[in-house]
## 1
Amino acid sequence: MNSHETELVTIDIEDAEALWEAFASNDHDILAREAFERELRFVAGLEDEGLYFRPGGWSINLPATAARIAVVAAILAAGFQIAGLEDLDREVIIATASLVATMDLRPVRLGRNDRSLADRLRQAGLTGTPVTAAQAHRALSKKRRREVSTTEITSALNRLVAAGIADRDSDDLWVVRARGSEAWIRISLPSD
Amino acid sequence: MAVTDHLFSPSARYDWFGWTVDSVPVEASAGRLAETHEYFHRQLDDTTAFGGLITTVAALADSTRSGEWIAKRDRLKSMCDIVHESFAVGMSLLATQRRVKTVSGYPAYDRYVRVVVRLLGAEVHPWVGLAALRAAATACMQSGALAMAAGDDIERFAPSSLPRLERPNHRLAVLLAGTFRERVAAANRMAEAEFGETDWWRPTSGALLAPEALEGDAGDASGNLHRDLREQAEGLIATAGGGAINAESHYAALRVLLSQARALAPEGLTRIGALVESPGGELMHGGALDSQTIKLTAAPTRAVILPYGAVSGLSGVGSDAHVFVVLTRPERIRRAFAVVEGIELPSTPSAALMRSTVYDGERRDCVLHIVLDDPTQMDLRSRSVYLSALSSAVASDPERAAIWMRSVDASRLSLVMDTPSSAALKRWCANGGRFRTQTRLVVVEGMEVRVVVGRVEEGKRRSPLVIIPTTEFGARWFEAARIEDSELASAVFDDGRIFEEEEDHLDIVLNHMLYEERFVGTGSWRR
């Protein structure tokens, strides 16, 4: 068991929303959206008998492997629903998800500042343009520039890459993707 | 797992048979929203074909605990959950005078609010919204699935055999993709042209929907609008290739399905709820006084069971000293308390137990139950002895219950309803009896419970003091049911003197009930 398998990952309702938005950009396909949510909650162990009206959202700590399986199963369930395969046994989806999840897949938690950096770069017309951390820093408001360092901008850009909102062009250049064309999830093979 | 909890945002759960709610703090209007939400789940299942199918399969899953039936129930749930949640979210918002907007503190329901807005439009008048949402949800749930299951025989029925357009969620997707919203908008324009100048269309009281909007001519017009929009929704679904069943015409198939289901459950379908409550297999819609379970928080979580003679078991001190005997089902105690210590509970269907609370200083430490073997063990005629029977114990063990209940004077005998009550009230009053009643709010450690109390009187005969613990929602439902249901209307009479007349008795019974029971309500027999 590698360290990722013992590591706990937190997934919450906002992660689920963000993951869905990255996958489908809206929830007009109500059948796929519900299949996604149903499977995510089932594999994460959140599904109980009955229909609830519960306050708050949900937040669950799962071993990284289980979290990977839950996320992949949710996406697969939505995909199968769209493909018209909604009667597939749940076990088939989970087994497939388990295979896919052997790849390293970890949710990336973006802060409000990370997202506003991406928004700022897009507003500055830098979508699709390679930028350095210093150029990204200059795209911020004067007030904000005084509050954050270029090093912090470098870290934020790297988090945007991990979240699929930007790509790394070279060691010190990053490219922010256009809204709606974000990579819905980053998958990398484990190094060990 | 950590499901985020908000201290004063109540939660509720519907399980196809009834619903469970937290007792809510005084002033918590969210409690009404939560309970109204669960009530609409129940209403949708009780009144539609797909609802009849899933509740019957749920009853089989519950009675047999077979993995196969549980899987079938969950599969059917996944075919109707968007319709169910959207209906319950939208109807509960409108019925509690809220706009169809996301509810602060309940983010998991935001997407159902979006579904309702897509379905009806954002600017529809609540009077039109209520009729339109019910019409859409009913058209989605009135599919041919029930008849197909009954035709296959429920034992052989496989949910995956259902055509897509007999599945409610798919039917809803058809309405969302089609012109239902435009039809609702047209209905809204017509309604505004016809009623726009009336007081109820533009209430000045601050309410979004005036009560008069659903009464008299306006109520009749609402019914017509609902029928018209339901037919339009059915037409859209039929055009896409789905079948449509007229409202209520699915009951014949449901009776067939129920009889097939009964044959598969050797010990009976005791948990199907209101569907088999009425005599002769007549199907009836369950209301708040047939389905509620209310979680109480004042009682200790530990119960101690001791034999008669081990300790006194007396409650209260000085002039308040008394003996409180409860006739209940041992199973109810096992399920209610987290820890049950002491001797084994009797293995009989019901048991008489002397009950009191044991204190550790000011703290309520545990609920003490002393097992009584028969009524001759103590002087039940003494004025300080009170007997309170749970209605589920009386139903499950009538002979033992009769022996105990005859041993106590009726002035100190109560019947606490933990089973469906509206059918019971009708039965008790069928031969000219009348239920003289009063409802009051009782606050227990800051949490509110409504208590309906009364006695059935017929000539010189009078029943034990009937006590129905409920919520604000349940009390309102009871008021409405007495107006709409002619049998209840002629049998039930308000009498504002009852709490005063029965003051001493109620003081004893309500204190024991609300501080020593973990769950109360007319659905709590299932716990």
## 2
Amino acid sequence: MNPSWMIYLGLALLSIGAIGLATQRNLIKLVMSIELMISSVCMISVGYSLLNDVTGQVLAIYLMAIAAAEVAVGAGIIIAAYRLSNTVDLEVYGRLRG
Amino acid sequence: MMFAEISPLCIILPLASFILIIALRSRRLSPILAGLSTLACLAISSGTFYEIFLSGGRPLYITYDWIRIGNSILGFGLLIDKVSSLMMLIVSLISFLVVVYSVGYLHDDPSWVRYFAEVSLFAGSMMGLVMSSNLLAMFIFWELVGLCSYLLIGFWLTDERAPVASTEAFVVTRFADGFMMLGLVLLYAELGTLDMVRISKLGAIAPIPALLLLIGAFGKSAQIPFYGWLPDAMAAPTPISALLHSATMVKAGVYLVLRLYSLDLLSGEPMRIVAYIGCITALLAAIIASVEIDVKRVIAYSTVSHLALMMLAFGLGAFTIGYLHVLNHSIFKALLFLCAGVVMHTTGKSKITEIGGLARHSKFVALMALFGSLSLAGLPPFSGFFSKDGIFAAVLESGDSALISLTCFTVFLSSFYIFRWYFSIFHGREKDYHYHFIPEYRWMLIPLPILGILTLAVSGFVPTFYEAFGEIFHFHFGLEGAIALLLAILGLILAFFLYFLEIRPFIMDTTFWALLRRLPERAFGIYWLYFGLANLTIRLADILGTFDRKILDGFVNLVGNITVRLSDSLGSIDRSIVDGLVNLIASIPSRLGGLTRRIHTGIMLDYNLSILAGVILVAMVLWITVVLAVI
């Protein structure tokens, strides 16, 4: 199995996630983009592990655990934010403006 | 020594009654309280009089320290001896009779409660004045009776004359009291005590403080140059004129001289002045009384004249006879004033020329007024005869021809003016007035017979009086008695022709006579003197005020302005330089923050983009580094 397509797929997913992060205004979509980027990193590391050893695959498992934790935290923040202002649109959260 | 020991109650009871009347404000209780307190005073005074004066008991002398400042002690004390016990009896008797009289006199007055309160205050203060052994305590009571005089002269607040007269009386007597206070200060500085008994152990008072004290006495007793206030004080209700302005309060000045004299505190030189002032005042006041036409002012001037006669007697050293005249004058003058009150109430007139023939309506009042007039004129067997005769004898004894001639004239005039007054009111042609007597006026008739009988009864008391002061009364009707009696009878006869028979000699209708009358009618220019002095004082105050405003205030304002200007300039330095530096330093971080704050847009997408851009940048740098390393 040629690992190169896995790496390309991973890069493509990473790009999609980055573009999503830069363009989307929905908090849920942002979290999803971050998830997508973490998953793409997982895919790339698994792809590279096929060329050498299993370190990449172990890393992927760790990353999935971190991603799960990150989702839990992200979802919590979103719910809290939703309760605060009744919306998940990013435009509303401009309070950090200096 | 039973009554003498409780005699301080004579001060306390009327003052307590004053407070109670003010507190209760009861129309029914006020006269009862005032009457009871003065009656109690009368009882205690009579007992004291019996013990000390008649039975020759030991004088009561109480003294204690009142104020201590360092080594200086101001004391407070009572001295009840023969002099003060008789005066206490006079004061309490007249006070009680006047309270009874006032019930009728003021029966429909709205300020009835205030009246009895003030009378009670007066009775207590006057008792205090009489009993004090300390000159300072005496001065305090002296001022209190002055206050009562002021309040009671101005009793009818809405009257035209009363407020002016009360202010005049207050200012004139206060002016004299200023000298008295100066005298007290000098005396205290010199001797270190104001207790008369203690001073008497050190000898007589030096002439200057004695003179200053005497000026106070002249003010209170309306002697030259202070006599103007007393006739104006007749704006007071008539019982007040009887109580304060003839029988008791104006006697305070005479009493002060008497008190000092009885303790041998006055030396020869001041007494000469007292004699001359008294002699001249007696004549002037008698002349004014002879032309005055107001019912009360005639007897007011007569009061001035008689007070002056007492001063004259003291000035000549005739202590006992002067004191006898104090007693007699209190009785007959109170009687005359109370009669005048009845006359004015029943006729509604206040000028003697408007009444006439009143004896036809009220024989009783006429008889009582006749008793008073006979006693005043000094005709036997009335008590006035003994004292007036005695004063005349003392003047003759002095051998001073000026005093003798002036006193002869005074004796003649005093008989003339009082019968002019008596005949004009009670006899002669009846003028246009309406006589009305209402039942309430009966109260006013009660005191009259008591005083009327006393004018006769005191004659029998004269030998006892002399005996009490260690002198023997030996009545001999000599030359001086004959002269005094002759002069008095001459005055009576002249008044009888002019005002009883109403024979009017042509000279009284001439311009010359009118011109002659003008001087005494204007009280010998005493008011001109008062107003002149008052205007002078106001001018002086104006000038001093201008000086104060322009120069003293100007200097203060200048200093103030300089300080304000100086602080203004210092303030601007502080604001521009010191504060400017602080603000400059503070503004640097603020400016920097303003520059950098624009990065924080608050939009999360911008942050995301910048993170991505950062990552891409790092990646490119790494990539270039790797490529360069490979090459």
